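Sanity check

After download, print the first record. It should look like this:
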Amino acid sequence: MKKLLIIILLLTSGCDQGKVKPVSNCSTAFEEITLRLTYTDTLQLFLDSQMVFSPFTPIDYDALTGRLYAFDSYNKRLLTYQTGGDDTLLYPAGTLKINTKEKVSYFRYLSPDSLLLYAYNRDYLMYYDLKNEKVTSTRTFLPAGKSFPKTMLPARPFASAAAPIYLLDSVVVGAGYLLGEKADEYFPGRTIFAAIHPGNHVTYHIPYSGVYQENNWGGSHLRIPYTSYNAAAKQWLLSLPADHHMRVIDSNWKVSEVPAASAKGVCITSMALGKDNQVIYNADVTLDYYLHTPTYRNIIHDPYSNCYYRILEMPVNNAKQPGKQPWLIVLDKNFQYKGEAAMPMSFALDNFFIGREGICFLDMENENQNIARYVQCKISW
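Expected structure tokens:
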């Protein structure tokens, strides 16, 4: 009740001049097709006394070897789990100490000899030599000391499994966002993607879609970009929370928009505040807005089934336990709607990997602190 009172006071005191009529971005309902989702407890990872596994624990999966890598950011360790056997409980097949002082928030396993490490708080992208156990080079997406004109508002990557960093022909590409909403910002200059080229030359690409231009979407949760990469087609896929469309981006950064909405007919409504209203910098206000607003998130390319999965989160009317119900939407290789189904609310949607048999999500309903449990989701359509 106290938190609710604070939010109401913030919305009503000193902010009248910043109020505007909210705008609803609504999709048209069409015939809904129900998917069949099958869940199995496929992976249980044993955790030693030092390891804490959370929705934000960085992981990477090598489909060729069946190895799952997990990074222990607190103790600077890389743990390897060998999947594909008959054992239901997997113990680390190897543990490597990683020599870095930085807090690694994301990594990619490049080869038996090298890792790509990323520290979001410092904007450090580090190449790590596993053989010699050291960082060999460090780059940044926003070079220190570089001043940008007012027409440029680039973001460093906010990397996770739901917005991965890729090394593509010696170019490192990732997607991220800036906090806040500004009425006077140069809309095309607020870009999502950053690319580091050889010679440490950095380029910035792709502004938000048009729905973001005039309205206030809270400046945080609904600004987060979700991405995936189709290596065969050399295309990036971009899902934005307030947009019913998905953006398909080719190797030359040319954008095509394709419908990728739920069949339900969903309305995503902006805040009743002007873009410059300072209320959005209160975390409680923006969280409450997010929890009560339908939003899209993950876009996942499945190379084994040659299709795409987009996730929609719908508000749950439960005052005691507020949350959002995720729905998995399937699009075929031509981005045609094939169906949707509700998913468990316990899945960590930023912590998953794709295998030949389906997607494995970290299950936060698991209460055993000595185990990290990944539940496999098999999708039939």
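If your output differs, re-run the checksum step. Summary of this record's structure: The radius of gyration is 21 Å.
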